[in-house]
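#random but structural
TW: two for the price of one
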Amino acid sequence: MSAASPRSSIFNHPLGFWFFFWGEFAERCCFYGMRAILLLYMIDRIGFDEGRASQMMAFFVAGCYILPLLGGFVADRFLGKYWTIVLFSVPYVGGQLLLGIENKPFLFISLGLLAMGSGVIKPNISTLMGLTYDQQRPGQEKLRSDAFAMFYGSINIGSAISALVMPWLRDHYGYQVAFLFPAALMTLALLIFAAGKPFYARETVGRKILTPEEKRNRLTVLRRILGLFIVVTFFWSIFDQAESTWTLFARDCLDLNLFGRKIAPDMIQSLNPIFILILLPPVTALWHLLPRLGIRLRPTDKMLIGFCLAGTTMLIMSIAGFRYAEVGRVSILWEVIPYILITAAEICISVVGLELAFSAAPASMKSFVTACWLLTIFFGNIFNAGITPYYGKEISWLNLTLTPGVYFGLFALLMIPVAGAFIFVAKRFNRLQSADASPAAK
């Protein structure tokens, strides 16, 4: 049987991969399941108003994307990736258990533990998996690429399942029982991951001192990608409102009867991972097909398409909001279509953008670029923490009420200058990349 056959490819993976795969599947089920019902839990049980709950969601997600910097530091300097993941999984489980205690102090403690657990683990598990392939399957880049594709699939399958199951558990058994489900999944993820230790890469822990040349390279790369990353921040601001303003819009404005049954408003969040699994193969195939047709899109061109899709998403949500003001509840399709568009935008911006940044960085800076990328999500959610509390509220000094139609419409308008800014920074990025690639620069 040839090495290219599917059966051979699957069985050629290191045994450690399957511990990574199933551990990540369970952990992502846990994380996204908890996030799916968190907003309405804070409103229905903790007593926050909608604005405060949306703000808490934004701060929580921001915490999950700033703490990877701590995770990378602890793993590289002190504990190594394996022990960092294992030790910080314990407060992760504890945070899930505490979340079901319905008062504000326990909510704050549990969200802090969950953000710390998720954030610290995030940069280490995929890096450890990559190291395992480098050591145990050196030179087999196609095999490693396939592994990361399957790993990415486990994330989306896990998040889709949990986003469907958690609202159902909540509706039938209550929040406290529902939160036991992700706690059990995280415990399972910890046990699976810990059991795979003999099959993982050997780690060397210690401080790496940057040379003057590496420091200069880091500044050069940072200046080059900074403009792109600042603009990407606004995409994450839109994307990460799925768990806040989009859920509130689904609860208040959509006809949630589907095939004769009423679905929970937070269950609609499962559409994003489902559409990722559906859209990623054909979009990837399209990127390969276009050059054969004589259409050559640079990575920045693909990202610009993503920004246009994000703006169109907000425009459709705005129209839906104005229609709701006229007819009462509107069809669920008014949010399904935006989910399709924002998922396509995610593929164009998130997948392509990170790959582009990686290609711009030397091998010694891949982790640094990943950390910078995660910071764009952090700042996008910090922006949300300031803006989402005004959803549906009256702003007296502007004499304006941010109804859903107005609120989403302002985001649609915002994406016009954002796309313009991206065109400007993309031109500069491409010019510098071309200059580096030219023979004169070598």
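TW: number two ↓
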Amino acid sequence: MNRKRPSLLSALCFLSFIGSGLAFVGYFLASLFFEETCDIITTYSSWYSTEQLSPLYFTFLMALYGLSVVSVIRIWKFHRDGYFLYMAVHTIILFFPAIWIGWSVFSATNSIFTVVFMGGFSLFYRHLK
């Protein structure tokens, strides 16, 4: 069966794949080079201490972004399970840092992008089987 993929759905998948793929690699490197990552965080951010972070924190985020890549591939192939996986994973990604570290790290910018992409994928739910 050969279906025509709407251009906006293609763009959402492409951007999500790139973003989640880069995040996967970034969190992999952050967990692998944890000490260096902590040095970078304290040097270039307003954080004075990274005591609440651990390699497990970055590994968990890496796994979530890996699942996000899988979900986008499933959406690209018109599978509804990809849509539900994407929604679940990105809801967890949105709140995980606030739960692990504290609500002071909750990101409004991340929230906006998450809602925009979730809304965009929801527009094409009927195209998925």
